[in-house]
TrEMBL record:
Name under which the protein is recorded: Signal transducer and activator of transcription
Pfam families: SH2, STAT_alpha, STAT_bind, STAT_int, STAT_linker
Lineage: Eukaryota, Metazoa, Chordata, Craniata, Vertebrata
PROSITE patterns, per database record: SH2
Cellular localization per UniProt: Cytoplasm; Nucleus
Keywords: Acetylation, Activator, ADP-ribosylation, Coiled coil, Cytoplasm, DNA-binding, Isopeptide bond, Methylation, Nucleus, Phosphoprotein, SH2 domain, Transcription, Transcription regulation, Ubl conjugation
Organism the protein comes from: Cochlearius cochlearius
């Protein structure tokens, strides 16, 4: 079943979440019509590869054209209209930046997988629940409402200033007219009456000046309160959501809404600034005793400039955290001399700033690393599909200085991957007489010199972003805090949903909790230490919990991904639990689980019944990536054979737990049909007998019988038939015997 088909079967509350991230950037109509094609493309790789993204965009447009041809034949006028509009939109929006649509589609697919994983959970995880707090949503709406009200107030004050200017011009004209009269004329009753009218007009001017200053003061106060409270909280919430998204959590949206708020506030402040400049101009033309402008204007202008400085400083954000294109799902882990990308945005989108702001990237000042590549670029509105004022660095690479590289041999592997660094960015904005220096930094990154360090480095990134919302605590691992086990398990499920397409259910998470904390733990409020997660070896093992889990992720990604996505790999189940599950099942029922003693291993256990009616269980030696590289796991399950005594080899695997016929579960994943016994003349031009690998095991009833180190035997059916004709069963058993667990 395709991922989109699974999405369509979700409950309405989950479908509403899906609806939120499909818009004109990537219309849901295209997702629906091209579901299988979209899911078969590698959008993650294309999001960091411009040539690949260009090809995928071209192919996407071709797919849309094919759908247009189909619906044209069906004369579906509405769909024809929508597809034409969508095609024009996609081509116009992404032709100049094809990687952007790759990022969008990759994020949408990832978010679908996360929602599917969440739907399989009995309750929503604590982290995700906190991110979807209804109070937060209400605050977002309040911020947008208040920003709109402030903008309207500033525009209304513009009209008041214009009225004040017109009134002063009239006063100025009438006053100068009287001043131009002869002295004898000024004593007339008519002129005296005019002087009284001018005094009344001056009183009105004074009142209007005070009124305008009061309104300007209220607008400034409202902006100050909004920035100090709700807008600051909104920005901090967005940064926290970004942290969580970086470690596999829900996609963080809302940056466009924040940009709209920041931009409207900046426009309002500049509008107020112009109003104060206009009052200064009016002041130079007319002043009087008790004039409020000279007293209040300097203070108001100082406050406006202060708010503009703060608004600009907060608006300079890292939109996409540093990430190597080779490892798009492991952001903030950077390898020396390997390029990484990072994207920044100024949330104040003003046309006057396009190509006027040059951003410089540097690394923290410990002199251990330097940045090579293009580290100064101008922000512009042309590279982003949504027209935001942004800059993306695509060719930066960290280089370790020779003086520190020489001492690297004295550092342990954990010390390397627990050392945090920061990529810093600085620029200067010069606008309307203001000069504002801006600085921001990435979330802490971990530098590695060898890809073998990546798993532990990624563990550091997970632990940091799970445990703190401090964006710059580079000494975090000097004394890393414990994490709530319930939150950690939620993040571990995200690793599976984001990396291999299917999260973990409650039973699987319970097994991980038991492995971390022992049997029958209540993990809702249990605190787990960093050492227990990533540094201390599991009991009786030579590896840590995280290394064991990372090896399983790698195994799934490279060798059993379709089986995992279909939900046919139970995976995380203990030996004791598997026997409880299988003991009452039909003989030949089996399940798939990950090895607890071998890194990156998967095994299967089936239930059998002895002649006396007793139940017995058999677990095959785990298959690792070396064996699975030679033979697909689905084919192993199809072709697996067991030899008992003098019996003909047979496949004991009949039903996948609980009762799914094996071929129904795995049939679509078989690479080919098993070869029939062939004559030498059927083997092709050179006359060879075709051969296939067949996994064969020998169940040993005699405990003194030696065990072979392997459970895989490359043997074709035709060769086996010939051996049976010419060799005794004892000789064959010696040749094919493999290590096998019998209980």
């Amino acid at each position: 079943m395709s991922q989109w088909s699974q999405v369509q079967q979700l409950e309405i509350k989950f479908l509403e979440q899906v609806d939120q991230f499909y818009d004109d950037n990537f219309p849901m109509e295209i997702r629906h019509l091209l579901a299988q094609w979209i899911e078969s493309q590698d959008w993650e790789a294309a999001s960091n590869n411009e040539a690949m993204a260009t090809i995928l965009l071209q192919n996407l447009l071709i797919q849309v054209d094919e759908q247009l041809d189909r619906v044209s034949q069906e004369k579906n006028l509405l769909l024809i209209h929508n597809l034409k509009r969508i095609r024009k939109l996609l081509q116009g929006k992404y032709q100049g930046n094809p990687m952007h649509i790759a990022v969008i589609i990759s994020n949408c697919l990832r978010e679908e997988r996360r929602i599917l994983a969440a739907a399989s959970m009995p309750v929503q995880g604590p982290l995700e629940k906190s991110l979807q707090n209804s109070v937060v949503s209400e605050r977002q709406r309040n911020v947008e409402h208040k920003v709109s009200a402030i903008k309207n107030s500033a525009q209304m004050t513009d009209q008041d200033v214009k009225y004040l200017e017109d009134l002063q011009e009239e006063f100025d004209f009438r006053y100068k007219t009287i001043q131009s009269l002869e002295q004898s004329d000024k004593n007339s009753a008519l002129i005296k009456q005019e002087m009284l009218a001018l005094q009344a007009m001056l009183n009105t001017l004074d009142y209007k000046r005070k009124e305008v200053l009061s309104k300007i003061g209220r607008v400034i106060h409202e902006i100050d309160m909004l920035m100090s409270n709700m807008l600051t909280e909104e920005l901090l919430d967005w940064k926290r959501r970004q942290q969580i998204a970086c470690i596999g959590g829900p996609l963080h949206g809302g940056l466009d809404q924040l940009q709209n708020c920041f931009t409207l506030l900046a426009e309002s402040l500049f509008q107020v600034r112009r109003q104060l400049e206009k009052l200064d101009e009016l002041l130079t033309r007319l002043t009087y005793d008790g004039d409020p402008i000279p007293v209040q204007r300097p203070q108001l202008l100082e406050k406006v400039n202060f708010l503009l400085y703060n608004l600009f400083r907060n608006s300079f954000v890292v939109e996409r955290q540093p990430c190597m294109p080779t490892h798009p799902q492991r952001p903030m882990v950077l390898k020396t001399l390997i390029q990484f990308t990072v994207k920044l945005r100024l949330l104040i989108k003003l046309p006057e700033l396009n190509y006027q702001i040059r951003v410089k990237a540097t690394i923290d000042n410990n002199r251990r690393f330097v940045l090579c590549g293009t580290h100064v670029k101008a922000m512009n509105m042309d590279e982003s599909a949504n027209g935001s004022l942004s800059v993306e660095f695509r060719h930066l690479q960290p280089k370790e200085m020779k003086s520190s590289a020489g001492s690297k041999g004295n550092e342990g592997p954990h010390m390397v991957t627990e050392e945090l660094h920061s990529i810093s960015f600085e620029t200067q904005v010069c606008l309307y007489g203001l000069t504002i220096n801006l600085e921001t930094s990435s979330l802490p990154v971990v530098m590695i010199s060898n890809v073998s360090q990546l798993p532990n480095a990624w563990a550091s990134i997970i632990w940091y972003n799970l445990s703190t919302n401090d964006p710059q605590n580079l000494s975090f691992f000097n004394n890393p805090p414990a994490a709530t086990l319930s939150q950690l398990l939620e993040v571990l499920s995200w690793q599976f949903s984001s990396y291999v397409g299917r999260g973990l259910n409650s039973e699987q998470l319970n097994m991980l909790a038991e492995k971390l904390m022992g049997q029958q733990v209540s993990y809702n409020d249990y605190q787990l230490s960093w050492a227990k997660f990533c540094k201390e070896h599991l009991p009786g093992k030579s590896f840590t919990f995280w290394v064991w889990l990372e090896a399983i992720l790698d195994l799934i990604k490279k060798h059993i991904l379709p089986l995992w996505i279909d939900g046919y790999v139970m995976g995380f189940v203990s030996k004791e639990k598997e026997r409880i599950l299988l003991k009452d099942k039909t003989p030949g029922t089996f399940l798939l689980r990950f090895s607890e003693s071998n890194l990156g291993g998967i095994t299967f256990t089936w239930v059998d019944q002895l002649e006396n009616g007793d139940v017995t269980f058999h677990s095959v030696e785990p298959y690792n990536k070396g064996r699975l590289s030679a033979l697909p796991f689905a084919d192993i399950l199809r072709d697996y054979k067991v030899i008992m005594a003098d019996n003909v080899p047979e496949n004991p695997l009949k039903y996948l737990y609980p009762d799914i016929p094996k071929d129904k579960a795995f049939g679509k994943h078989y690479s080919c049909q098993p070869n029939e016994v062939s004559k030498p003349s059927d083997g092709g031009g050179k006359g060879y007998v075709p051969s296939v690998f067949i996994p064969v095991s020998k169940i040993l009833n005699d405990s003194t019988d030696p065990h072979s180190p392997s459970d895989l035997l490359p043997m074709s059916p035709s060769v086996y038939a010939v051996l049976r004709e010419h060799l005794s069963p004892t000789v064959i058993e010696t040749a094919v015997r493999c290590k096998f667990l019998h209980s």
